[in-house]
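Quick log. Single chain, no ligands specified.
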Amino acid sequence: MDVAWRLAEERGPLSLTMSEIAQAAAIGRATLYKYFADVESILVACHAQHVERHLDELQRLASGPGTSASRLVDLVQGYAMICFHRQRHGSTQLTALVHRGPEIVDVERRLHELFVAVLDEARAGGVTRYDMRAGEMAHFCLHALPAAGQANDADQVSRLVRVVLDGLGCAGKGPLGGSGAAAHRRRH
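-> predicted structure:
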């Protein structure tokens, strides 16, 4: 799967063949076809594994130690950094290929639920604004933070995170220094 992804990034997913993947992975075509029907199924499976790792990482940030404020900051920063790095890995064609279908709907639902849980807790603790439900604030985060993909560097991502946190009403409400973005940068 990693070989297929690398080749798709280099040449584009539409020009890639199963024979090329098998040759680059040093396996027989029959072995490849035993597990995958076509190039798209390989790339979708690879993407699904990558997404699961990100969801696990975000879940760790959301349920980690510290206050609801620090977990909220870690979650917002962590997701922003994922968006920042996602834009740098893969072509527009590759992104369009793997970001569709029922799997993506489930991922978006799980991501929304994760944000809602953290925002509910933060709202109950007086960390966020009180005039919006957690679900509304989660939608705001999940639509605003992908803008990090257009940032030139981590400093721009940090400024976007600050704007999002301000929009959530977190400005001046305690220690909002979180560690999510720094930890994610170290891993990438």
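The chain has ten helices and no strands.
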